[in-house]
Amino acid sequence: MKLLFDFLPILLFFIAYKMADIYVATGVLIVVTLAQTGWIWLRQRRIEKLPLFTAGLVLVLGGATLLLKDPMFVKWKPTVVNWLFAVAFLGSLFIGQKTLLERMMGGQLELPAPVWVKLTFAWTIFFFTMGVANLYVAFNFDENTWVNFKLFGMLGLTLAFVLAQAAYMSRHLKLDDTPPEKS
């Protein structure tokens, strides 16, 4: 359910683009993102930094797209988000005792410290590459191709990367060696 909630703005952007144009889609993206942020606030009485930051980017870059009638601003949003993730993940290698990834997933998984570092480097490279790929498609292909890439290409690449990461992590998971209890 959370995945659908997180995916909703991109999906509705895609649908609005197919039914109208980039400007209607951008308006829908802004409204849905702000509505999601409000919904999170109503339910939790707090908003984590990531959704708040993403909402701010959508508002600024989407607003610039609408005000200046230039879709390039909204096309930059995925790159800015991905590159900021890359910087955050890379920075976490040098700040604090644990990487950002370990802080996010360490409660669910127990992995050796070098594995967390390798995973963090992999995510850093992935986010940087996704930002570059977005710009490549945005500047070298038509708008329709970019919208399709934003939904299907970026989602597909992310899912493939997550599956590869899961396979890698499964090889390094520390398993509990205690025998099962006899009933």
Largest sheet: none
Low-confidence stretches: none
Q: Helix coverage percent of residues?
A: over 70%
Distance between the termini: 36 Å
In terms of DSSP E residues, the strand content is: under 5%
Shape: globular
Describe the structure.
The chain folds into 2 domains: 1-70; 76-174. It is 79% helix and 0% strand. The protein is globular and about 50 Å long. The chain has 183 residues and is mainly α. It contains 7 helices and no strands. The longest helix has 30 residues, at 143-172. Helix 2 packs antiparallel against helix 3 and helix 4 runs antiparallel to helix 6. The chain has helices spanning 2-19, 22-44, 49-68, 72-91, 100-105, 113-140, 143-172.
Question: What's the helix and strand layout?
Answer:
Blueprint: H1 2-19, H2 22-44, H3 49-68, H4 72-91, H5 100-105, H6 113-140, H7 143-172
